[in-house]
Amino acid sequence: MKTSYRARHPRSGWTLPAAMGAALAVATALPALAQPAAGTHTVRLLTPETALKAAQAAITRCRDNGHQVAVAVTDRSGTLQVLLRDRFAGAHTVEVSMRKAWTAASFRLPTKDLGAETQPGQPMSGLRGASQVMPIGGGLPIEAAGSTLGGIGVSGAPGGDADDACARAGLDAITDLIEF
């Protein structure tokens, strides 16, 4: 039995020319669908593997310097992606590292710099009362090509400068992965 190209598909009822026309219409529209709409904005996010690599490098640097710390990495909105706590790091280091990472991502500047800007008598001093803000050294924004990708926070080393050095080691470990 010969089947004509005009035969209808048994389930959809489409004829071959109609199906081909619909497929062509969809294929033609795909490039337009791939572009972001005028009312949207595209952002880049860290992969979990990249966030983990940064945290591991930071904790390794601190451990090599004899410090037991916790390291947190957040995405650009301050949502936690990775948290590592070394075996002897104090219980408080978990919360403090998360708050440092959140602060760095939220304000898009190192937490040490925010500490200077929020001292008593400064215009931004009221921020110190906000529940998540941690304006002390140890938190750095994760940035590439002018875009903030997240934040990294380290807590447990003796002083903000030591925490900053470990956070910097975490950033250095992922630079080649995030530059675009």
Topology:
Blueprint: H1 16-34, H2 48-64, E1 70-75, E2 80-85, H3 92-107, H4 111-117, E3 139-144, E4 147-155, H5 160-178
Antiparallel strand pairs: 1-2, 1-4, 3-4
Helix pairs in contact: 2-5
Characterization of the model:
- This protein is an alpha+beta fold.
- It has 2 domains: 42 residues; 131 residues, Haem-degrading domain (Beta-Lactamase).
- The model has no long low-confidence stretch (mean pLDDT 87).
Report the CATH C-level class of the largest domain. Alpha Beta
CATH superfamily of the largest domain: Haem-degrading domain
Strand content: 15-25%
Structural class: alpha+beta
Distance between the termini: 59 Å
Sketch the topology as an H/E string, one letter per element: HHEEHHEEH
The radius of gyration computed from the alpha-carbon positions, rounded to a whole number of angstroms, is 25 Å
Q: How many DSSP-defined strands?
A: 4
CATH topology type of the largest domain: Beta-Lactamase
Second-tier CATH architecture of the largest domain = 2-Layer Sandwich
Spatial strand sequence of the major β-sheet: 2-1-4-3
